[in-house]
Design goal:
With about 475 residues, this protein is an alpha/beta fold. It contains 13 helices and 20 strands. The structure holds flavin-adenine dinucleotide (FAD).
């Protein structure tokens, strides 16, 4: 086995965790390495919920940018999902979307997304990745600790269900994709390396979800209903069409507004939203499963990019690096973008893999994180500093949405940013500001002079560019 990492050097890569981030990482590693994926859960062929991924019973939207990245990694995967019953649609025209309580226009934005249960998405990805000649999935196998010699990780100690004693699997590269509960920080500490600094946003968000069969006129051809929580109403609801002609609903709430995971609790929560379609699904839909509940204590970002010392032969990806507020539907997309970053670095043959990988994905993760954090901090119960720039940005976004409810172009601009196709800066470009101001003043955008936004109306505060 080789002792270094790079595209010209074959060897063994071991991925810890066989969920989406792990499988997508395995897909790109297989171009260079023999890959073994260690997964704590038992083998699973059919789509469905499993113990290691309790979030799998809740609404999971794959953003348009994520769908594109999945397709780049696994060409044809979208069609496979559609053939398996997933529902495709325009991200804006086929969605009822009410950010900040304002309903966006139902016009085509040209971005399509595939709506399916997380179980179906994972099963399709797993089938494709494990069919690759260089990938082996070891189910019922728990990673216990890293094994290292001086500056380099050279294996993983693991235990399989069939064997009481632990063993060591040697590896040229280990990729930790074990999700929110990743133990890499403590493993690093045990090996004498610094642990990454963590940023936490304590959201204390609770989900309660159920799957229903509903008459066709309830969804009226829409693939998704998105009613995010707002500052004045810190509770919300998400619904999506999934395979099998079913509709999955997730009700969510911040402290004091949490959904109660009983049929009566769901009905009361749905009624309190004032969204007749959600209420109709929950009160008159035919329930197809038990109610699932999930609590997210905090969004967590681990700053591996800032570490001065990090062992060779180790990477971290997916929720193990950054677990976002799930209601913004960013996790699967970011995992796929991280896999694309890894693919490009492996192809370049750069031996300095970890620092480059962490630096490059910090750009992607940081942007997505800052947008989510700005949104979270509108919710009164979420603790955290609210500098004047952040308050200005949120005030601006309220103006934006108030205008977007009447404006096709603004609605499309938001859909593209929320789908991670366009950068967040786009929403504070002069062209957008001009449209918002025109709408707010009852003018045509052409009546607002061209040029730079003046000091009073300036919306560029650096916040969404990732500056602290
Ligand atoms: C309630 C909720 C709703 C969400 N909704 C969305 C959404 O709408 N859209 C979206 O894009 N994302 C959403 N997400 C995020 C999304 O689920 C994750 O980003 C995505 O699954 C990628 O996560 P991951 O693969 O990094 O980790 P996970 O999916 O958490 O998987 C970790 C894997 O590692 C395994 N494992 C853990 N420890 C060990 C060990 N020691 N040894 C071996 N295996 C181990 C686990 O069994 C599991 O399979 C949501 C998350 C939550 C909590």
């Amino acid at each position: 086995m080789s002792s270094s990492v790079g595209s010209s050097l074959a060897g063994r890569a071991v991925v810890l965790g066989g969920s989406l981030a792990g499988l997508l990482a395995a897909r790109v590693l297989a171009d260079t390495y023999d890959v073994v994926v260690l997964e704590r859960d038992a083998a699973q062929d059919a789509p469905g919920a499993r113990r290691g991924v309790p979030q799998g019973r809740h609404v999971h939207a794959l953003l348009a940018r994520g769908g594109g990245a999945f397709e780049e990694l696994l060409p044809g995967i979208s069609n496979e999902l559609l053939e398996a019953g997933a529902v495709g649609g325009d991200v804006l025209a086929d969605t009822t979307w009410c950010p900040h309580g304002y309903r966006l226009r139902n016009v085509p934005c040209g971005l399509r997304a595939v709506s399916a249960s997380r179980g179906l998405i994972e099963a399709a990805v797993r089938r494709r990745v494990t069919a690759l000649p260089h990938v082996k999935l070891w189910p019922s196998t728990t990673a216990l600790e890293l094994v290292a010699t001086s500056n380099r990780v050279c294996g993983i100690r693991f235990r399989s269900l069939s064997d009481d004693s632990s063993k060591v699997l040697a590896a040229d590269l280990i990729v930790d994709a074990t999700g929110r509960t990743s133990r890499t920080p403590e493993w690093l500490g045990a090996l004498g390396f610094p642990r990454p600094v963590e940023t936490r946003v304590p959201v204390h968000l609770r989900y309660a979800s159920r799957t229903y069969r509903v008459p066709a006129d309830v969804m009226r051809g829409r693939t998704a209903l998105v009613y995010p929580a707002t500052a004045r109403r810190p509770r919300g609801a998400l619904a999506q069409q999934i395979e099998g002609g079913r509709v999955r609903v997730s009700l969510l709430g911040y402290p004091g507004y949490e959904p109660i995971a009983t049929p009566e609790g769901l009905s009361a929560h749905a009624a309190s939203l004032g969204m007749p379609d959600i209420e109709q699904i929950v009160t008159s839909g035919e329930p197809l499963d038990d109610i699932a509940s999930y609590g997210v204590a905090a969004n967590v970002r681990r700053h591996y990019e800032a570490l001065e010392r990090f062992p060779e032969g180790l990477l971290v990806t997916g929720d193990a690096i950054c677990a976002f507020n799930p209601s913004y539907a960013q996790g699967m997309t970011v995992a796929a973008l991280e896999a694309l970053t890894l693919r490009n670095l492996l192809a370049s043959g750069d031996p300095n893999l970890a620092p480059r990988f962490f630096r490059q994905i910090a750009g992607v993760v940081g942007r997505v994180w800052m947008v989510g954090m700005a949104n979270d901090l509108q919710i009164p119960s979420v603790r955290g500093p609210r500098p004047v720039q952040l308050r200005a940005m949120n005030a601006w976004m309220r103006q934006f949405f108030a205008a977007a409810q009447h404006d096709d172009e603004l609605s499309v601009a938001f859909a593209r940013v929320a789908s991670l196709v366009d950068p967040p800066e786009r929403l504070r470009s002069w062209a957008i500001a001009r449209r918002v101001l025109a709408r707010r003043c009852g003018l045509s955008p052409y009546e607002i002079p061209r040029g730079r936004v003046g000091h009073n109306t300036r919306v560029d505060n650096g916040l969404l560019r990732g500056r602290p």
